[in-house]
TrEMBL record:
It is a multi-pass membrane protein. It comes from Neisseria lisongii. Belongs to the peptidase M50B family. The chain crosses the membrane at residues 56-76, 96-119, 139-161, 182-215. Signal peptide: none annotated. This is Site-2 protease family protein. Its cofactor is Zn(2+).
Amino acid sequence: MFQKFDLGIFLLAVLPVLLALVGREVAKGYMARHWGDPTAEQHGFLTFNPLPHIDIVGTIIVPLFTFMLTPFMFGWCKPIPIDSRNFRNTRLAWRWVAASGPLANLAMAFFWGLILVLVPHAPTDFQYPLGEMAKYGVQINAVLTALSLLPILPWDGGIIIDSFLPAHLSQQYRKIEPYGTLIVILLLISGLLGSIIQPLYTLIVGLVSLLVSLLGG
């Protein structure tokens, strides 16, 4: 998305980025509570206040550097605390908790698409910044949806796959978990990550664009 650092673009992207990162974690916290685990709520994570969610490296340093140096922004928040011993059905609960993250980002991509529909009706002075912010919101959430569905533990896509595996295969699959984030970072540095997530990213952005064109006339 972003090839060269631009302070104006960065400032417009801050709100969509924070909402995208925090929103997915809040969604996971609520889903965990639905399945019987109140840990995230007890620790104050069921809030859109970004302060409890901020990870210095993942929420500030990595997004800033990827914003400046790569074609898209990449980052993460503190993972919400989950105690799976509280789940009513552990495997099914993990499946839905993991799915709630990318589903939240997908929903926010369409939310920013609806904002784009409303931009022409905003006061003239606000149309350009609001439109640019909404575009970044669509793009950032499309990227995070595609990223989080990578079939690598501990990412959401990996957790979803693991929830379907029989015990003996799950045990083998989980051996990659300690290296999962490193694998993704290496894919990012090598330039392969963009190619891997591009098809799903393009599909999401295309669907949002279709919605905007239909509703915007």
